[in-house]
Every structure is written in structure tokens, then in C-alpha cells.
């Protein structure tokens, strides 16, 4: 009588897979926590207010923590991606994803100014504070890193014959860039909701890429 024995992967492979796992859970965690706040905090309007504003007022610490935790998980995924990528492709994509993750951490530390009537009682407009300016700058840098990472990985997937992942990466980069351009222009309403959809698409892309390399880690 023979007994099948499961083979435990080597420690380096287990570490790589563990790091990539954070790329799978980062997005759902960020979206669930953010949406729960958006739907329950008094005065917040999904069609008008950016999620960055949730870092203000009573309970703002939840969104601060949401930014920081999501950012750290993204950095962990970037490290896992670097370990999983073949030689010669381990620099730009992980570096750019790390930049995006660190920008999320910075966005939590340097929160946006309270404007547009949120939290309740905040002015519609106001002078940008130093931390509000840093929040905007870090956001712009991080979003740029994310878009660039999409196109860098798209090129790698195309060379490897992974056409589906290549096109998903390109589309994600274009969608996120368009969404960011719209919200950076000060538009509200449909543009705000479109940017939220772009953010969800980007998190889905990161999860898909992480799962791909998780399965192929060796």
C-alpha cells in the first residue's frame, strides 16, 4: 500500500508566493474598507467626493490605515514580482509598483485637505496646506508609476506570448490614465465614478498579475 506525500516547495518559492499573495488581497481589502466608509459616513457622496477625503474628520484614521496597509501590501507584491520575474526583467516593473505602493503609504500619512463640504461643515474650497500639497504630489507620482508598470509588464507579457495578460495590462494602463486625467481636471459626477471604476480595474489587474506569477513560481 502506497501513500501519496505532498511535496513542500522550497523556502524561497514559499516566500515568493506569500509576497505575491498580498497583491491578490490588497485591492479587495482597500475597496471593501473604502466603500464601507463611503456608504456610512455622514455627508460623503460617492459621485462627488474622492476617497482621499475620508482621511479627514472623526473616523478618518480608518482611511489613513487603509492607505498605509494597501500600500505596504502593494510593496510586498512588488518584491514578490521581482523574485518571480525571469532574469533581465526584474528591475522596472517591480520598481514602479514599489513606487505606487509607497505613494499610497505617503497618501495616508499626508492626508488631503477637507473640502467640498466633507466632513460636514468643511468649506467648498480652501487654501491647499503643505500636507494637502504633498498628498497631491505623491498621488500623481504613484499613479504615474502604476500606469508605467502596466505598460512595462504588457511588453513582457507580449514577448512571452501571453496575449491576454498583455492586452489586460495595456487596457488597465489606458483606463487608469484616463480616469486620473479626468479627476485631476477637477471634474465631478460621472468622472468621479469613472475614476473609482479605474481604481477597481487597477486592483483587479494587480491581483491577476500576482496570481499569474504565483502559479508559475518555481
Overview of this protein structure:
The chain contains six helices and no strands. It has 218 residues and is mainly alpha-helical.
Summarize the structure.
With 218 residues, the protein is mostly helical. It contains 6 helices and no strands. The longest helix has 30 residues.
List keywords for this structure.
elongated, mainly alpha
Topology:
Elements: H1 11-40, H2 60-84, H3 92-109, H4 130-159, H5 163-184, H6 190-216
- Helix and strand content put the structural class at mainly alpha
Order of helix and strand elements from N to C terminus = HHHHHH
What percent of the residues sit in helical stretches (DSSP H or I)? 55-70%
Q: Give the overall silhouette.
A: elongated
Q: What low-confidence regions span 5 or more consecutive residues with pLDDT below 50?
A: 1-5
**What is Rg?**
19 Å
Q: What is the strand content? A: under 5%
Largest sheet: none
Q: State the helix count.
A: 6
Distance between the termini: 31 Å
Number of DSSP strand runs: 0
Overall average residue pLDDT: 91
Amino acid at each position: 500500500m502506497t501513500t501519496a506525500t505532498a511535496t513542500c516547495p522550497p523556502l524561497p518559492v514559499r516566500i515568493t508566493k506569500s509576497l505575491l499573495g498580498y497583491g491578490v488581497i490588497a485591492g479587495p481589502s482597500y475597496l471593501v474598507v473604502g466603500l464601507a466608509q463611503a456608504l456610512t459616513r455622514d455627508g460623503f457622496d460617492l459621485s462627488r467626493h474622492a476617497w482621499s477625503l475620508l482621511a479627514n474628520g472623526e473616523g478618518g484614521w480608518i482611511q489613513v490605515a487603509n492607505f498605509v496597509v494597501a500600500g505596504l501590501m502593494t510593496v510586498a507584491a512588488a518584491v514578490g514580482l521581482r523574485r518571480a520575474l525571469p532574469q533581465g526583467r526584474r528591475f522596472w516593473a517591480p520598481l514602479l509598483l514599489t513606487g505606487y505602493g509607497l505613494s499610497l503609504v505617503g497618501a495616508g500619512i499626508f492626508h488631503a485637505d477637507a473640502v467640498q463640504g466633507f466632513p460636514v461643515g468643511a468649506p467648498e474650497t480652501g487654501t491647499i496646506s503643505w500636507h494637502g500639497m504633498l498628498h497631491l504630489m505623491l498621488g500623481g507620482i504613484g499613479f504615474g508609476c502604476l500606469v508605467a508598470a502596466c505598460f512595462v509588464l504588457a511588453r513582457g507579457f507580449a514577448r512571452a506570448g501571453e496575449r491576454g495578460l498583455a492586452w489586460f495590462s495595456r487596457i488597465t494602463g489606458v483606463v487608469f490614465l484616463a480616469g486620473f486625467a479626468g479627476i485631476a481636471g477637477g471634474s465631478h459626477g460621472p468622472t468621479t465614478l469613472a475614476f473609482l471604476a479605474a481604481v477597481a480595474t487597477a486592483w483587479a489587474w494587480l491581483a491577476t498579475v500576482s496570481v499569474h506569477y504565483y502559479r508559475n513560481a518555481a
